[in-house]
Amino acid sequence: MDELLGEFISETQETLEALAGVVVAWEADPSDRDRLDAIFRFFHTVKGSCGFLNLPRFERLSHAAEDVLSDVRADRRTADPATVSAVLAVMDRIGELAEAVASGASLANEDDDMLIAALRAVDAPPVVETPVAAAAPQRRENAAGGMRTIRLPLTLIDQLMNGVSDMVLARNELSRKLRERTSDPELDSAFERLSACVADMRDVISKTRMQRVDRLFAAVPRMVRDLCRDLGKRIELDMEGGDVEMDREMVEMVVDPLTHIVRNSIDHGIETPAERVQAGKPEAGLLRLVARQSGNQIVIEISDDGRGIDTARLVRKALESGAITADVAARMTEEERLDLIFHPGLSTAREVSAISGRGVGMDIVRANVERIGGVIAIDNRPGQGLSIILRVPLTLTIIPGLIVRAGGQQFAIPRAAIVEILHENNEMLSITRVGGACIATIRNIRHAMIELEDVLGLPRAEMHGPRTIMVVRSSSGIPFAMAVGSVDNHEELVIRPASPVVMMAGVYAGMTLPDNGRPMLLLDAAGLANAAGLSLAADNGGLAAPDHDRQAEAGPEMIRALRFRELGGEERLLRLSLVERVEDIDAARFGMSAGRAFVRVDDRLLWVANGHHRFDTDRVTALRLRDGDREICYPVGRVIDIVEMPTVPDMRLSDGPISGVTVIDGIHLEILDPFVLFAAMPHDPVRDDAPPRCVLAEGDDPWAREMLAPLLQQAGYDVVIGLPEDAPLRPDDVVVSVGSGATDCLPQSHPVVRLRSAPRPSGVNDPTIYRYDSAALMAAIETIRKDRAA
């Protein structure tokens, strides 16, 4: 019985999440019978299960709601706002009861009678017969749900994921051992098969942790409805990307920031109907939530067409509160003014409401997003609207990070927390000590600075080169400088919880297992700042302020770029935003095929942009570049620094991969043109969502199975071996025959591509194709496909 009760509670809670949006959509369109039926079925199912499980309160509430919905289905009552509110209130109470049963807590039942009375209100409006206009087709939520499933404890899924992570680390260790031995082709082949199996298992088990973003969006329609009723506003809600999947833990971590942003948008972003009409806008505001996957990130955009953020008012608030000085305010750019929204306690709201205040708590929102390796950005359009973009990792268990060395030990830090990396001998950097505090001045901008060894209580290891200075973004958004021995690597990190004793130190966010299999601690930027006692709201109001007037206001717009040395010795620049990662790759992984250089990384092949595939060293430094969809590799001699370069070169070029030349630190440097790099790379064959199907008529022919089938599969076709016996051919099937009588049973109207074994045709009118003439074979298949499609 306990197992049945637990399953009932779980199913009830999951269905309630999905139904909240369904009820709101039904209120907007009472004629939608499908949504009404879905809601009715939920209460009917709950009522039926309660008698067997002895849950009288569930039964009483669901029975009352079922009666009301039955009247609505029979046109004896209308789905007016009061009725919908009463139904939603009963759903809330059932959710509270389910939570109480699951946790073993008690819940007072005094309010049950009041909820039931609201449902059965005798003064419900009478039915008004009105013609129902034809509704435009729209997506309908299926509360019952798209396949058969089973329930598994989350702990079991976590154990599987941990086991696979251990397998990956063991595979990496075995790979290193094999590289130290004399090459054995048979052993290498067996290891490659093992690696492929482990990678496939990792991907499959990772998918068990994934959940649709629909779950993240589920509570938004109800929240928008309730807040609109409270505030007297009209808002149209548009949500896209609910089918995008992300890690279940990531969904839970993003719920609070998303809820806060949506409430801010409704309360202080979108105007009242009267204000909107006066501003020349429609009475109803628009709130859009869009989710999409971009590489290994999930991008969630929350946008509205409200009043936007008044940055001038934000600056005045900051001046009044003493957060900044008048001198700092006078030098601030528009971007820095907008960034004040993340300063603790600042808001443009004229009064603090019980619902939200744009700016109140936004520092916490950014801290929560960055804590999981994400970033938050704002696109402000004063008077027209605001967009807030969240970029979070696809999964919480794997994040991009940097491996740094301090005190002879290695530590990891999320890449999202790093703004810039320099060496201490860089001419743009100067380090001074003022009153016992260390100050790093980078391009005339002062940053509080810490030494990582000092914060962690580690001895300073002897260095044979300059120390590395990292500009780190803290939870408050104000960057600080951190000195480390070196940056050793840049890779995807497997994140796991650290022990409570370690976490109590306050400077770690967990532990990670990099590719070398040696556990290391993940640094927490905010914890390091707190442990070092940094006053990020110091003499300049908590902002990294310039010593002199900004040259950027009068000079060219600057962007960050990676300065590196080519294998041939030339120093060049490349826009930093295109560099996915920098890593050292085994030279044996590079190769050449059909005049194109490639490299094998992460069990897949990437094109090499500059054509290099033979090297004098065992390890090669390589840039992994991504244009959003594709990834390519660019081997280099050495990465030198991250610098600022103008968006427009000092001298423009339009020939080859060099877009121009600019002067950095008195040295003229060529700028690589990423457009030319990616345009020169071969494109993968474009495949339809449903690939075309080729049927090989002679399924028992060895040549058809071993030679023809792989050729067609590599060309992107779905191959069926032998004519299907249990189902007729599809109209768009292309049948390929090697010459026997297997196709005699087909209708004469169904075209067949016939192959012959002899190089020459048997006569002038021979329609067959030589079976090793792949170009003619592919052309014939495409011609048949196009003719059938027409």
UniProtKB/TrEMBL annotation:
Domain HPt: 1-101
Domain Histidine kinase: 145-396
PROSITE patterns: CHEW, HIS_KIN, HPT
Sites bearing Phosphohistidine, chain numbering: H44
Keywords assigned: Kinase, Phosphoprotein, Transferase, Two-component regulatory system
Signal peptide: none
EC primary class: transferase
Catalytic activity: ATP + protein L-histidine = ADP + protein N-phospho-L-histidine
Record-level Gene Ontology MF annotations: phosphorelay sensor kinase activity
EC number of the protein: 2.7.13.3
Glycosyltransferase keyword on record: no
Gene Ontology, cellular component aspect: cytoplasm
Lipid metabolism as UniProt keyword: no
GO term, biological process aspect, one: chemotaxis
Protein name: Chemotaxis protein CheA
Organism: Sphingobium algorifonticola
